[in-house]
Amino acid sequence: MAMELKAPILSILNKQYQPDSLIETTFKRYDLSFKTDETGRPILLFLGQKDKDGKIRGERYARRIQTDKDGKVIKDHWDHKGKATP
C-alpha cells in the first residue's frame, strides 16, 4: 500500500490542529491518526485500517519542516517511513 500522499489527504494535513495532540479521523476507506507539534501542525501520520485493538495497520509517514531564523517555512514535505504496526 506504500503510496505518496495525494492532495485530498494533504489538505487535511495542511490544517492547524490542537498543539501536541493525537488526532484520529477517517478519509474514504482509510483511518488516519496523526500527532501534532507545539504549533498544531501534523508531524507524524499513520494511514491504514484500524485493527481490533485500535492500532492502525498500514503506513507511517513523518513530516520534515525546515524554517529560517524568522520562522518562515522553507521546506515542508512528508517522508514514507515504512509499515505502521507491523
Structure description:
The protein is mostly beta strands and 86 residues long. The protein has one helix and five strands, in the order H-E-E-E-E-E. It has one helix at residues 7-13, and strands spanning 22-27, 30-36, 42-50, 56-67, 73-84. Strands 1-2-3-4-5 form a five-stranded antiparallel sheet, with no helix packed on it.
The CA-CA distance between the termini, in Å, is 13 Å
- Overall shape: it is globular
Quick one: biggest sheet? 5 strands, antiparallel
Number of helices: 1
Helix share of residues?
under 10%
- Across the major sheet, the strand order is 1-2-3-4-5
Strand content: over 45%
Runs in which pLDDT lies below 50 for 5 or more consecutive residues are none
Q: What pattern of helices and strands is seen along the backbone?
A: HEEEEE
Question: Structural class given helices, strands, pairing?
Answer: mainly beta
User: For the residues shown, what is the average pLDDT?
Assistant: 91
Number of strands: 5
Radius of gyration, in Å, reads 13 Å
Short note summarizing the structure:
With 86 residues, the protein is mainly beta. It is built from one helix and five strands; from the N terminus they run H-E-E-E-E-E.
Q: What tags apply to this protein structure?
A:
86 residues; 5 strands; globular; mainly beta; 53% strand; five-stranded antiparallel sheet
SSE map:
Blueprint: H1 7-13, E1 22-27, E2 30-36, E3 42-50, E4 56-67, E5 73-84
